[in-house]
Amino acid sequence: MTRTATRKTGRTRRAITGVTALAVAVGLAVACVAVRPWTFVGHTAGTGRPTSAAKVDVTTLRTQPVVKGVLDAETRLGGTLQYDASSDFQPASGVITRLPTPGAEIATGQQVYEMNGTPVPLFHGERPFWRTLQVDAPDGPDVTQLEQNLAELGFFTGTVDGHFDWLTREAIRQWQRSLGLTGDAANGVFEPSSVVLAPSAPIRVKTVTAKLGDRDASPGSYTGTALHVEATLTSTQAATFKAGDKVQVIMPDNTTIDTTLAAVDQGGVSTGKDGQTTQPSARVDFPDQTQVTRFGTTSVQLVIPHTADSDQAGSGESLIVPVTAIIASAGSTYAVEVVRGDTVTRIPVEIGLVANARVQLTKADGLEAGDKVVVS
Fold it and tell me: What 3-state class would DSSP assign to 72?
């Protein structure tokens, strides 16, 4: 398939597709002089009206019908199946006595690492834990977040309301005992350093940078567990594509997944490095992760279909001819030759999208669907 860049404006597209068509049509123009003896120097395109007709033996000509429809094309992009950007684990507040395993997936309540001989499990929430929480602690969203995690693990059975009462204390005691704490260590008091907090769970351990025995160090980094595709766009593509557009993802084994673009980022955001900015990009998410988990991080292809615009307002359709019907003339003008009866008439045209060896005509006065055009 011949693909052209999606245009930002009508003028831009014609300039882009005109280059594609010109490469095809210039070569054809030479052939046309040799095989079309009815073509005279005086039959020039670009006048805005059909030129004079020439009588020929039309039975010797190869023709194809002009059709009216929608010319489809596609944009192919290289993309990467990857996890979200990584985040560092918060530093331990003691000695690291056991480390996580890179690539391990950890759910809420499961151990991330061990500090001072005690498991440090995963909790999730957007708000950092910043204070010791115990009975009579002022109400707050951090209490709500703590109760939500304890309820998810089955320890808290009260109302999640942001109020730390005896039910919250008893839930913490049960949770502490489940971690192996006994005696005064299972005191019903929550310390922020007793958990690893991530915005969501589960998580995937990406790197382990600490060593056993390190004190007050971050164990490493983590990501979410969901894979998605990121693909870099041109500024024109970013202005054309939008979230919800159809896309086909071609996996390394050539299987395909039909889905939609989750987001299109226009880029231009400062990276904080020497005036650099982010590039435009598109993102594809996979609600059904079983479709992609076996591939891990890898390169993929994205195929985004797009449709030619029509100058015929409201119809959504244009006249379409084979690319071999296009004749390139001086001044980057184009024409087709139509057979009517026993005559051949050259008609100036303007071209739009070129795809699948067919050309969209954005202007073709005097040409109608069903007309027979001469092809090389």
Answer: strand
Residue 71 is predicted with a pLDDT of 83
- Pick from 359, 350, 366: which is nearest to 64 by CA? 359
At 147, which helix (H) or strand (E)?
helix 141-152
Report the distance separating Cα 21 and Cα 359, nearest Å: 8
Report how far residue 315's alpha carbon sits from residue 274's, in angstroms, rounded to the nearest whole number: 49
In CATH, the number for domain 76-83+226-307 is: 2.40.30.170
Q: Judging by beta carbons within 10 Å of its beta carbon (0-12, 13-18, 19+), is residue 22 exposed, middle or buried?
A: middle
pTM: 0.67
CATH topology of domain 87-224: Muramoyl-pentapeptide Carboxypeptidase; domain 1 (1.10.101)
CATH code for the part of the protein at 10-71+309-374 = 2.40.420.20
- First vs last Cα of the chain: how many Å apart? 19
pLDDT in tens, 27-63: 333 333 333 433 433 333 444 444 556 777 888 999 9
CA distance 281 to 295: 22
> In this structure, are strands 111-115 and 118-124 parallel, antiparallel, or unpaired?
antiparallel
Residues of the chain with CATH 1.10.101.10: 87-224
